[in-house]
Design brief:
alpha+beta, Alpha-Beta Plaits, 2 domains, 15-stranded mixed β-sheet, elongated
Length: 298
Amino acid sequence: MEIKGTIVEDTYAEAFDGLFARMIVTAKNSKLLKKAVYDATALPCTVFGEAEGGVEAFLSPQETPDGRIGAIIQLWVAYTKNAKDKLTRELGKRIRQGILVVPTTRVFDAPMGEKKDEVSMMEIVGHCGDGHEWTEERFGRTLINVPLMMGEFLIDGKITAQKGVAGGNIWLFCESEEDALNAAEKCVLATDKVPGAIAPFDICSAGSKVETNFPEIGPTTNHPFCPTLKGKIADFKVPEGIVSIPEIVIDGTSLDAVRDAMKACVDAAAGMDGVRMISAGNFGGKLGRHHIYLKDLI
């Protein structure tokens, strides 16, 4: 298959179910806002039993509950029988250490998708007030007010836990590192425009696989697709002339959101200089039940 002269491989991305929280964070100015949302969603690491997250969109004052600038963030864990417990732990840790400590910030629930449960914020965030916190009605919501040395921190009393789809992806087979960075950046920007979708790793340089010789550190590099291993391994799969293969990982509030973001990436990268082929990663059906075929996106 081809689009705009770029080959699109007849393959699929393998995605899996996840549990996530979607929140609006607001602050007094853009510096404080970016500090909070980037700190709270940093270091995606679902493979270690923790979480991955990202910024879905930045918002104008007209789009937030309190009339200040804001951003929508998502925080994800794998959908397992103890997923709510993991999400609760990660929400508490990342809100307390990534958002509450940043001056003037507030957190509002922003569900969009299939609701599964709710997570109470009093035990895991509210009690940062050491018993001096209280609840109040403001902005049409029931909020917890945590007293701080610089004023107050406000957060919705409950955050919705929702079921979504994680792990969609696009691979770009590129002729140079510069071509790879340019094309991958366009894909990330395209993903940012899809409601409900995030690219938690931004431009991902690593790639990974299920099988590993070192399970204690989680997934290791997808070695058959590492250009620098040419002539060193028997199962080398990088086409001649390809020197860089960035991956865009996509999580979304629904399967449609992931599909739409993948399509946006294909459309963005196709025809760009140095992008010889667009593909996707999968694990032969071993990881996730959602198979998103590239041929259905063009």
